[in-house]
Amino acid sequence: MPTFDLIVIGGGVGGAGAAIKARSHGQKVAVIEQRDWGGTTVNRGSTPKKVLLAAAEAHRHFQPQTFAATTPAIDWPRLAAYRDTVVAQTQTRFKQRFQQQGIFTYEGHAEFVDAQTISVNGQFLTATNFVLATGAHPVELAFPGNEFVQHSGSFFRSERLPKRLTILGAGIIAFAMASIASEAGAKVTLLQHDAVALRAYDPEFVGLLLADLGKRGVDFQFNDELTTLTMTANGLQGTTRQGTTFITDAVYTALGRAANVGDLGLANAGVAFNRQGIQVNSRLQTTQPNIYAVGDCAAANVPKLANYAIYQGKYLGDSLTATPTFPIKYPLPVSAVFSLPRLAQAGVTVLQAQAQSAKYQLKAIPLAQWLTYQREHDDQARLKLIINRQSQLVVGAEVYSYSADELINYLAILIQRQLSVAQVHELFLAYPSTATDLYGIWI
Ligand SMILES: Cc1cc2nc3c(=O)[nH]c(=O)nc-3n(C[C@H](O)[C@H](O)[C@H](O)COP(=O)(O)OP(=O)(O)OC[C@H]3O[C@@H](n4cnc5c(N)ncnc54)[C@H](O)[C@@H]3O)c2cc1C
Ligand SMILES: NC(=O)c1ccc[n+]([C@@H]2O[C@H](COP(=O)([O-])OP(=O)(O)OC[C@H]3O[C@@H](n4cnc5c(N)ncnc54)[C@H](O)[C@@H]3O)[C@@H](O)[C@H]2O)c1
């Protein structure tokens, strides 16, 4: 029976982090993938999303920036073909990287036989340690007609853009879908069961985003949800809890994600899980001491994001070379909503600062008059810094801008490194750029 130091179940970003790190320490490693190499990020998440978003962004900026009379339409089928090429190339590179580093790869569904053995396509493999990196799947709703509902992954990989499109949920994925689809010419309606969108973000910035998308034709329906969906000659007919009836061409969900724990034989291996996912301790160890879990499948108390999955994977790849002796310590949180414009946050959030106003001071900085934003007609761009009253250090930031995802990473570096005003002004950078704007921000 093939025997390894480490077997990783799941060939997404979390699994890759663990496998590559462990291999770099000389471990004999195997990775098993049942569907497509690169997992959610590469195939149904940020990779296809960012290719589509680039086209939507170019479309959004075309008239303001060129002063042309009209904007050419997005050619969705050709854009989709390019997206698929990027995805296929990334997928291939993902698998090749494992093989180039001497990591064994298996394609098939892995299932535990016992705590030391798994089966893949009827073959048994054994290892000293296992890392579960099986990811998550979209949450489903149960209502009559839910068989017509698709998930966000289908939207980001769609060959054609539906003319009328309904999105369920008002979270991170919903806003990326609404921004792309509306810019590409679809009539978008977004249904949210309560009154709150993008719960963790500054409500003032979320309000700006809602107003902007609203102006561009996105119809937001709050405090309402879909109760039935039927196929008619004119398209899908939906009815909501509040009694509204509408016709649409496609319904996509973005209602959160649930850990992939089924069909893994976890009971055979003594691995416990609950609604949040696979139970792990502060060393990412499950209830079975030689089995660990990372990323979206693990019930660790951190956001289900690619940067966390990679970070956890690398932590395990390092610590599994010996008995892990130190608990995982997470860096400063940093994330972005890939909408048009974008929202991004790092460190202490505006909502957290508002809840602890004795400890934190908020500083609002308009950005629209700066060259970086003026040349892009980003006339709503703005930033909030969160400052610790005692240390006077910047401990958090939130940005609303088309390039918020870039600025937030610069700010995250300054915050993580706890740089003072003088230290930021000592940095020598190419001018003028988003990075040199930091001189003006850090005063
Ligand atoms: C639409 C969308 C957009 C996103 N955008 C962002 C973003 O911009 N930034 C960000 O940080 N995060 C983003 N995320 C979240 C990010 O994709 C996830 O946090 C990340 O993919 C988690 O990585 P993972 O390795 O834990 O799981 P996955 O990437 O889901 O990988 C798990 C892999 O395990 C395989 N697998 C499962 N069970 C088995 C089995 N029994 N045997 C063999 N293989 C198995 C699966 O096929 C899958 O390939 C996005 C998510 C979605 C859905
Ligand atoms: N840029 C990024 O970092 C990024 C992008 C996409 C996804 N992700 C990850 O993927 C995860 C899933 O994203 P998501 O947008 O699906 O989840 P989410 O948790 O961000 O949002 C889900 C939304 O659906 C709403 N909702 C729940 N039940 C509903 C119902 N019955 N009817 C209508 N609305 C309902 C919730 O109130 C919430 O607004 C995120 O939590 C994140 O971890 C990250």
From TrEMBL:
The keyword Cell membrane belongs to this UniProt entry's keyword annotation: no
Keywords, in A-Z order: FAD, Flavoprotein, Oxidoreductase
GO MF annotations in UniProt: oxidoreductase activity
Annotated InterPro entries: FAD/NAD-bd_sf, FAD/NAD-binding_dom, FAD/NAD-linked_Rdtase_dimer_sf, Pyr_nuc-diS_OxRdtase, Pyr_nucl-diS_OxRdtase_dimer
Keyword Cell cycle: no
Superkingdom per UniProt: Bacteria
Span of domain Pyridine nucleotide-disulphide oxidoreductase dimerisation: 335-435
Family per record: Belongs to the class-I pyridine nucleotide-disulfide oxidoreductase family.
Protein name per UniProt: Dihydrolipoyl dehydrogenase family protein
Residues annotated as domain FAD/NAD(P)-binding: 4-313
EC primary class: oxidoreductase
